[in-house]
User: Fold these one by one.
Assistant:
Number 1:
Amino acid sequence: MDIENKLPEEDQSEEQENNDRSSPSNPSSNGRGEKKEAKNEVKQNKKENIDKNDQKAKGKDDALNQQHSKDKGLGLLSKKLKAVREAKRGERLKAAKTLAKSAIKKKVLQAAKKGLIAGGNTIAPGLGTATGFAIDHPKTAAIIVVLAITLPIIILTMVFSAFTSSLNTSGEGDSVFVSGSCPHDAIAGGVAECSINVSYPGEASDILISIDLPPGTEYIDSVPEATFDGKTISWSLIGPNPLPNAKLSNVNTTLLFHLRGSGVPSASLPIAYSIVPFVESETPIQEALNNSGCDGSTPNNPHGNFGNPNCDFNKNELGKILRREDPANAYKWDAIIACESTYNPNAYNPNSSSGKGAYGLLQMNPAQQRTDIYRFDAGNVNWNPDSRPLGVAAGAQVTNAINYNTIGLKGSFKYWECRKAAGIR
Amino acid sequence: MINIDKKYILLGALFLTLVFVLVLIATGSVGAPVAEDQSTIPTQSPIDGNLDQANTIPPVTYNTDASKKQIEKKENRIPLTQSDLDAKQEILSLLPEGQSYGIIYSSENFNIEYVESLDLIKVEILSNSIEDIKTEAVNWFRDQGLSQEGVCNYPVDFYLGSGVVPDGGEIFSPIAPGC
């Protein structure tokens, strides 16, 4: 730019000179015309020189520019080359690292394998070798493992399935599990002890178990005692003569029985069982029978006319029952009843020490669904054991008290503060 | 590849464990049933609470010695004299026709009732003046021809009716006055 626009100082002075000379104030003619031509020529030459110089300068500029761009391109290229070299180097390092890692792992695995083999062989000869084989031949080992798991399960299932059964009862989701075992080999010529395990988490009035005597065997005995009709051995888990309102709950028991035989029974021993569902106690039934008092009024207690639903209470009948059920203590019971309830079978005291209320002739607790001694601690039931509705089995006030005293208190009467009215301290 | 190896090592370990378990089960050293527990029927629920916890406390204090004496008299009867036996028959003739037990006499203060099954004449006291009423009842028996000895030996038995509490908080005795 500077180069293009600036003229040399010398040329500028000459031009100035030419301008001065060509002014109209200078009247020269022919000689002056030649001079003019020469001057023009010089001027022309000068211009040409200037143009040439300009072109030269331009060319220099272009060359410089080209050089500059060349330099730029080279820089990028070298940078690229450098990056490529570094990337290659990184990859090589990575690969080396991976190789090193896998080598370490391989070594570790080999060491582990050696350890397993040695350890296994120490525990049981051949176990370690088997482990080594499993590591070396994983697919074969996998098949062996699957077979080792499956086959024993199948065999065990086949062995026990004939003697084991389970069932889901409807309604509560409780399940009964009955299983048994009988060493068949021992029966041959001798006595074998067989067993049946029964577990049931729910409640039932009874669970009945029976098993057919295997051919070629003879029934000897059982614990608990079973009934045997010559063909079938049967148990009732609640036992003979169950108490009123008795029930089974959370059963987990074993029945043992002994068989004698001359040969090994070929067939398995199928167990049959059934659950007798538990039925609610008589209390609600009694309430439904007569919920009004025998004098027409409504008894003031939560259980209505629980004590005398048939309106058959009188002291004479009570005396008869006392003499029959506990003759040695009949007068004592009579005195205690007079004190506790003044002979009112519907007597009710909400402020009992138990907090549940005291009911009936002997002011006992409301009936509970129990199978232990507390099943007799039930006062909100019929006073009369002889006039209970059929199918109802919650005991009666008098008999509950007698049973509670005899079985639970060993005859001490200590449940009743009114024992003092009978002269008992 | 490395992951697969691990898997197989685990499988190997599992296999070893299974073999051990199966061997132990087969030899019966694990899960062998305890013989004592097998021959029992279900045990009853454990007893909870005090069996002899009194459920009610009577509002009346009873004379234990007198009560004991009365029970002994009931259980071991002293035979009545003939005159007392006759008097007893006279008293029982007051029962409603055709009945061998029940209410013999009723007043504002007491009821007299015969319990055939226990052979007892019982007096139910209906108001709080216990001793006065007892005396009144004994006088009634004497009026029927029963001697004091007969009242004591038979024995005439007293008890408190519903809601009856001695006036002075005295100790109650089922024995007739003068016995």
Number 2:
Amino acid sequence: MKASKLPALLLALFSVYLLAELRSPSYESGFDVNGFARLPVLNGGRVKPLDTIARTFLLMIHGKQTLRSGRKRKDAVQWLMDVLFDPAKAESDPLFEIDDPEVLGMFGIQQTKNRYYAFTDLAPFAGEIEKQAVKADEVKPEQRSRFQRSVHKLQSRLILFQSLGDTFQLLGGGASAEFYAKISEAYRAGEPQGFNLALKGLQQAVAESAPQENSRAGYERLFNVFQPFYQCVILYMVVFLLTFLSRMFWPEALYRSAFWLLLLAFGLHTVGLSARMWIQARPPVTNLYSSAIFVGWFSVLMGVVLEKITKRGLGSIAASAIGFITLIIAHNLASEGDTLEMMRAVLDSNFWLATHVVCITIGYASTFLSGFLGILYVLRRIFDKRWDEGTASALEGMIYGVVCFSAFFSFLGTVLGGIWADQSWGRFWGWDPKENGALMIVLWNVFILHARIGGLASQRSIALMAVFGNVITAVSWFGVNMLGIGLHSYGFMDQAFVWLAIFCASQFAVIGLGMVPEPVLRAWRNP
Amino acid sequence: MNKWRPLLERLASVRLTLFCIAFLMVLVLFGTLAQVQIGTFAAQKMYFNSFWIYKDILGMDVPVLPGGLTVGAVWMVNLLAAFAVRFDYERKHLGILLSHFGLIVLFGGQFLAQTLGRESQMPIEIGQSSNFSESFRDMELAVSGDVDSDIDEVTVIPERALRREGRIEIPRQPYFLNIKKYIRNAQVGMGAPGTHSMATRGIGLQVSVQEADPVSSDDEINNVSAFVEVLEGERSLGTWLVSFGLGAPQSFDLGGKKYRLMMRLARRYYPFTLTLKEFHHDIYPGTDIPKNFSSLVRLTDPEKNESRDALIYMNNPLRYAGHTFYQASFGKNDTLSVFQVVKNPAWLTPYISCFLVVLGLGIRFFGHLSSFARRPS
């Protein structure tokens, strides 16, 4: 095979793979599971398909979007059907993860490899769990002990499980309720034909009363099945590897393959982002989850533009790395509930979401991009044998350009935030933690610019300062939410804190590496 | 001019700019972390709305670091000096000039807002009217006496006057007050008054008072209390315990008139009145997630001949007579609406500054970027 055909071949291969992923899954049971999954209902203030409810609840209760017990594997929607229509079956599924030995000890169970327990296992201890959870509830979340946190979590998951059937409303009025009862009966009796017939009736009733919501729910199910961001994660990983390998083998063919696949991934990322915007009828960033999606998207966009201009592979590497990491972060944030949640009172403003929030998030994205270019600067200076003055100043030039860009957007975003605050609270600036976080990013970018313009920093220092920008951005993006105070906070996240600390430590390690002086480096290269 | 030039050049240096930025970042970091301990309001006052940050060392308040106002002032001098001696007034530097001028406007506005701005709240129940707002934490001692059946004459003693303790002369009134003891935060409970109580009249004879540590977090309030002796000339009418936590006023008679004593949140009266006509608390269907809060009020200002309805809702406050009224809270089963009242004489400056800086940076950076993009790789 000629290496020059490789890019086209890889692109075709991945496109076929993606098209295949668009198909609805097939189920053997004979029940029209896909039809059921598409059914729109009202929950959490918006109309969504049952599939979304199944996935978010299973994720919140079980921590995963599929349920495995032994060799059997249940999709979220199959699990939901059991919960709604055949509770006895659902109650014996190993659903609840308990990894705290003290909680298990309370039940007189020794910790084993098996971390998952069924509702029936826990039912005898329901009273005790509730009692302990009520006690834990009286302690502030950040002051709870490990046991208190675990038992509190377990109790809230048990409540979610038990209340699932009451959390949504059918569309289409009285006729729907009748069909729904028939669906339930047929399912319990194991009669696929009766189930499918009643489901058809229900689908028709819903489609007549709410045609627009009905078709939207169908698309949302498709979105859920396709999982565009999951596919992006795979693609970004491939792009990263190919770009990296292109420095060793088939430079031209691998480099071009990587860039084409980067474009494909970016296209897919764009489709996913737009689909969310369309389903929700909102600007792209409405909560922490969507901010991660958007930070990734915008960084990749800028990476692609940089790559197009400079053609050195640096844009591709940085773009794929940030795209990959931010989507992984988003994936982990999704376990908090429906990621397309409704906007609370003061946030219910498309104008400010589209201006302030988008600018701030562009600020995050571009500061991260400059930081990753800074990391590349440090790593290539140490490990790349072809590192020279030209590469160094090209990279530094890119960093400077991106820092200008982020200074502009983070300033604009921060001031627009102040103006929003003036519009809604009558004050421009209150030194609230989230405001301070945004201000830190502005100040740091401005610091870098002035250090460079004033001729007070070398190329390498500019790169290192850009890396430090990663720390500031990560802290203001996530750390502020961990403070749990102020008008802006989203809630306490203890696990995320560990990851944030690891990330910051890694950035400081890179800065430390970057500070290795030139003579030491030369001695290491030519011993 | 020449004599001053070397000094101005120093003041205009980029080094000083970097120093200001770095110092502000340190302040922001500590000021944010401090909010966990002492609350947003107290941290803001201590770190940002101060010239010096004091720390308690061996019982003395020692200034340890310059506060936000000092850093802002130095930065402002740096900027002004840069305009005087550093910047080139040429067309190609228009971006720099505009954006830095915008910063001067921003800093100046924020300085005015922080020093002259006032925040208070106005709770109104449906059907009721109010012409005053209350402080969030500052108290005042109010002594009201009947003039006739419709009019009360109210004398108000602010908390900082109580703090000094001792005798307070009140003009045009037949009595003096002697503040025997001021307690910043007291725990008042039912029970025997104990030996350290000074009360000889009123409810103070039936309750116990204990000093507690002052609180500063955003959801707590100090229960400001005082033992107040009322004197007519040299004759003492008795000593009362007045405390914010007591709620209802206590009374005494003097010269055939009835007077009432009460510790309450410091009030600010306005020449206009707001009447709450309706309050709405909208939720998303099938949930308890709030979608909107809105209050329909009647604004009456006899002086300016205004009498009209205004709707206050999320992201849409009422601006009137230099004050902004926004929907802050609600209560009593949605029959009470609480407005935050903000007086900020510099509220327009961020809008102007934002426009100038963004225009300036836009001219500067996008000029750069396009030349960067056109450059051969």
Number 3:
Amino acid sequence: MDKTATVDERALKDANAFLCLECGKCTSTCVVARYNRSYSPRRLISQALAGGRLPTSQELSICLTCMACDARCPSGVRFVDLIRELRRATYGAEFAGNCSHGGAMQSLMKLMTAAELNQDRLAWVTDDLKTADEGDVAFFVGCAPYFDAFFTELEVDTLAGVKGAVKVINALGIAPVVLPDERCCGHDLLWGGDVEHFEILARRNVELLRAKGVKTVVFNCPECYYTFKADYADVVGALPFEVKHLSEFLAERAGELNFVDDEGEKVTFQDPCRLARFAGVVEPPREVLTAAGVELAEMPRSGKGAVCCAGNGWLNCDRFSKEVQLERLREARATGATTLVTACPKCEIHFRCAMKDPNLGDEIKMEIRDLASTVASRLENKKAKPKGKETEE
Amino acid sequence: MTPAKGKTAATEEKSKAKAKASPEKPRAAAKGATKRPAGKSSAGGAKAKVKAKKTAAPRKPRKTEPKVREDFTPRIVVFACNWCSYAGADTAGISRIQYSPHFRIIRVMCSGRVHPAFVLRAFELGADGVLVSGCHFGDCHYIFGNERAVEQFEKTKALLKILGLEEGRIRLEWISAAEGVKFGRVIDEFVEQVRALGPSTLAPPGRELPREAEAFADAAALAK
């Protein structure tokens, strides 16, 4: 107990836990706590402060790390940081997580730490997409090729977002560099406590990008984006390139894109946690969508107050996650929008999974599409080339 | 059972030499030397060509060809279903069929239970090959479990293809409880196939399952 007490005390201090007023805003904001009555961030903090009772492995894996609590906290307690630090400190010993999908995602990520990989991850690059081997701008694909191969029964098409992103970047006259042996960014390993493997992945990715000499790296996946932006520096030092989320990249160049004139469909936007709350990128996706001519209907809880898709970095999936997803889908339906646009492949996967509920049927059914493919489908077809797969449904 | 008897008679001489690993070694050296170079060069060439067509940035050839090890004994994980294949392994044992010992068998209630996560985890822990084995179609104890196994296996195959692992490192087989001979033959074939591919490049250093020699040393130490 003494041995870990120092780690825990430091973790509590680093997370500003001693500033807690016990006001309970965290618990009333927490989407998990709304359904899982035995879970309460406030109680976890006050128990840790009062008697040194730390969250159990189960409690650690329940947290979605969506940061909704910290966004509301009046005294700046970083509950999410505390969870991450405790997961790291107890990883392998007490904390293992009830990895969803049998731990397949974690295994994939760990397998990608191998020094020598010969991945076949660029099969989605079709002739109408221009990619380059060298250049100033790189596009970080993320795990979409794996997601599409793994979630076949959910009929996810996360590669549509990737293809859309490359298409839009092409429309700006840029052929982005894509890495044939890009690794997973390691986001889920880091948030799952496995820092050892995360660091290997971080080093390999930065090494690959450094070798290409790129100046800007554009991301479609907000988790990759935020991990590069916030966590890679701790491992590899200052990054030798600039990182930008696709929405930021496009918002800066919105004037250079030509979109079709007809009236776009009515969509609503699901802010991914890592993009809105963590990285603070709230406006750019909206600017891009508006520029593309789609009608944006906001959900009551949007931007930094958006509700998480209950994805949780493949650590845990239970009936409470499902409740959270249903609540969010109902909210999205209530806006009257026909399509739910998100910027994160995981939101797409989890909402599609929730929509498979046979008992609710059409009540929560909704078209769901990636931000990038939505924007790409609105591009003016100057060269009259056949529309990509992402525009069909 | 007749074919089984035939085989046991033929291999009886071998079984007299009690050390399991020793009769394996000369065979390994002989087969490995002839098989490996041919198989690899053709596969590598074909892959490189396909890749060059598909993408703008052609995939680099492997920096280092996996080392061909004369003494390489593959580490193979076999997932066998409780009702057919595991019993098939029993039959192989009862009939004293001689076959390669370079595999670890894991019993599952049904081959349909073998989620991609199981296979990925095996590779993560340093397996060189994974064999999934269940009942023949129509024989499944759970009616359609083996059909699920095919679905899961296809998924695993797709994931490992993206990851760049050779296709020959995974295999799906249907072995009934009576097919002891087939069990032995499949294991022998698969061991040779993986031996020809060499060690898995995905095995992270320092996290490996012990190689056969070490495993036997452990077992010997335990026996004392």
Number 4:
Amino acid sequence: MDQTIYIVDDIVAAPGKGRELLELYRSAYAPGARARGMVLDREIVAPPMWLDELSNRLLITWTVQGAPGWWGQGVQSRYDPAVAEFWQQADGLIAQRARYFGAAEADVEGISHV
Amino acid sequence: MFDLVCLIDLSEPARAGLAASLKALGGSAAPVMEGNFNGGDLAARFSYTDEATYRAARPAIDAALAEAGATRCNWACFERGQGGAAAPGLADGVWRGLLLCADRPQAEARLDQFEAEMVLMPKYIPAIRNWRFSRALESGGDLKWTHVWEQEYADIGGLMGPYMLHPYHWALIDRWFDPECPDWIVNVTLCHSFAALGEAALS
């Protein structure tokens, strides 16, 4: 059985733009992500209040099942112009971002010995 | 050493004849296997002692492609880059060639890190038996290819299994190829080709 893979968007919003960014992410990105097989795990807002002058950090975590699930979403997204369009649209609301792919520590051995 | 990789599109009836012609010119050539992505119909590679020898040989290769009615050729020539051979002389395996174009705006600034991470793939993915990662000197076809990433596997299972499933590939290296990742530098148009060349290509 495939292990759960976590796709983590770690996004620092432009000052005062945290809520707007999350709303855009939910409306313009999340539906397509779900269609590519990604399952929303959680959305964390830090600090847990909306800031006006400073940046909120959004940690949005998705899951897929195993490397096949990961490739399934990855191959679809890179040839979907709507995905590129979303990130371009969001660019003005983002100060900095990273995307990580990981798994629970208990799954590391199984995932890395293929 | 100086090498040339060609991924050629041409009609099915013409493939065997062109493969024979290219072998007669000193190359190795074989039909591209199912599952490739933009990988052509026939894969061919040539090795020369130096660039001058390649220059002298190239017109005959182009003439053979034209005579066979090739409709497209994605190609790159290059001085050999970093490589390794865990299975020297592997002749009955599967050769895989990836032509990539690192042409995104931040590519130049990130190229050293990208290349350093790429050449660690065989350390973490031992199914890659022999390998070479080279910067293209000249290239043509769909894009101006900047790099040639070649590997040899004992069989197709090594490519389809460990290479594709290992997290060093999809959770680390692929971010350079993924427009959703901030580190993205490689054009999404690629040539992913593999063939049983029937001879040791990388050792």
